[in-house]
Amino acid sequence: MKRTFVQITVSILLLAAAEIAMSAVKVGQPAPDFSGTGSDGKSYHLADYRGKFVVLEWHNNGCPYTRKHYNSGNMQNLQKQWTARGVAWFTVISSAPGKQGYVNANDENTYMSKMGAAPTAALLDPTGTIGHLYDAKTTPQMIVINPQGVVVYDGAIDNRPTSDLKDIQGATNYVGLALEQSLAGKNVDVAATRPYGCSVKYPGTWF
User: What distance lies between CA 95 and its chain's CA centroid?
Assistant: First the structure.
């Protein structure tokens, strides 16, 4: 029986999704290496940060869940707190051109200056390459990598999955908890959670 174009296309998409799911990083596994270009024009290579803790923060400045953490100053405070302790913090923007949340380098630099953001770098990922490596689903989604290059946390920034600024106070911040416990040589109590926020606007998505 002949297959229609739509059936073939759906099959290809399902196979691609399965490959991504199989290759996506999991807690306790080595973090996939990547190179990315920052909004500062510099190239950043994850392997260069072996020996340091690394935080990956998926970002979309138009997402209300992202705005919750930036308009309150929560994300900037975390960036400053942990980079001061030697942690490399990368904001990752995987929105594709033409999709909500896409920015060019100048726009991102202007935004970071306005918001007082202080990551090590903001990585522009318009092809979604880095996002798919880590199976990033939402903005924000947070990943913590230890100095040995192993993922020790993947999921939500905290336990309050809302866009309400008032919910930041009293929330359990999973990122800070993972870093504190890892730095103390302890196992991370909560190593994986369901991320909340807006869907990452990858190339080819229609939402």
Answer: 12
Question: pLDDT at position 6, please?
Answer: 36
User: Using CA atoms, how far apart are residues 7 and 5, in angstroms rounded to an integer?
Assistant: 5
Q: Would the pLDDT of 207 be above 70?
A: no
- What is the set of domains in the chain, with CATH numbers? 25-199 (3.40.30.10)
Quick one: which of 181, 63, 57, 46 has its CA closest to 118? Answer: 57
Mean pLDDT of the chain: 90
CA 78 to chain centre: 14
* In contact, 80 and 120? CB cutoff 8 Å: no
d(CA 19, CA 10): 14
Q: Which amino acid is at 148?
A: Q
pTM: 0.87
Kindly report the length of the chain. Answer: 207
The count of other CB atoms within 10 Å of the CB of residue 160 is: 18
Given a cut of 80, is residue 21 above it in pLDDT?
no
Q: Is 84 exposed, middle or buried (0-12, 13-18, 19+ CB in 10 A)?
A: exposed
Residue 115: burial class (beta carbons within 10 Å; 0-12, 13-18, 19+): middle
Summarize pLDDT for 165-183 with one digit per residue, the tens.
Answer: 999 999 999 999 999 999 9
